[in-house]
């Protein structure tokens, strides 16, 4: 399914959502100090706005849209991602899921790409494994695995942690794609204030000298901040 079809499907479902209690609509609007994707910056280091819309049906099906400001070279635009999948809750309290996504860049469609994923999540831990047949539009098949941790250390402070590993299954080292593997890490804290969440984190990735094309060189270590309003 193309990103345009995902968007049209979401818009068609929204009126139906108002007539049934079996479908949940949620979303968030955020301001991110630097949009770092899998450890690497996708911009020029300036703050970017982000929007997320989600639909979750009681049957287990879900879908959504994600939009973020981005800059490629001297061209500003948007990264748009549509996704859909199915989640199954287990008797243990854990849930398993599978789905696919389409990422598109309004200013450079040659970097658009598809991914499919499987995952599992508990109360405080989520894991996913992604597969792309042409990562960032290049002739490279990749796997990306991630583990995310959420842990309340205080009624008003939550610990967040992330570990990811990108692995190239086939293809040469293209811009942003490692010749073999590359890890990325994130550790920080989030503070909920009503519908708002403030977050401060330290991010680090393996410095293998391979950067996403058209983006200026950036440090493999960075502090990032965000403010998110959920609805």
Polypeptide structure, described:
It is a single chain. The protein has one helix at residues 3-17, and strands spanning 23-32, 36-37, 40-41, 48-57, 61-72, 75-89, 95-105, 113-121, 125-132, 141-154, 157-170, 181-193, 196-205, 221-230. The chain has 231 residues and is mainly β. It has a 12-stranded antiparallel barrel. A two-stranded antiparallel ribbon has the order 2-3. A hairpin with a 3-residue loop joins strand 8 (113-121) and strand 9. It is globular, with a radius of gyration of 18 Å.
Fill in the keyword field for this structure.
single chain, 231 residues, mainly beta, twelve-stranded antiparallel β-barrel, two-stranded antiparallel sheet, 1 helix, 14 strands, globular
Helix content: under 10%
Write out the strand line-up for the largest beta sheet, numbering strands in chain order.
1-4-5-6-7-8-9-10-11-12-13-14
**Shape call:** globular
Give the terminus-to-terminus CA distance.
27 Å
Strand-residue fraction?
Answer: over 45%
Number of strands: 14
Rounded mean pLDDT score? 87
Q: Which class do the helix and strand fractions yield?
A: mainly beta
Uncertain stretches of 5 or more adjacent residues: 10-19
Largest sheet composition: 12 strands, antiparallel, barrel
Order of helices and strands: HEEEEEEEEEEEEEE
Question: How do you describe this structure in short?
Answer:
This protein has 231 residues and is mostly beta strands.
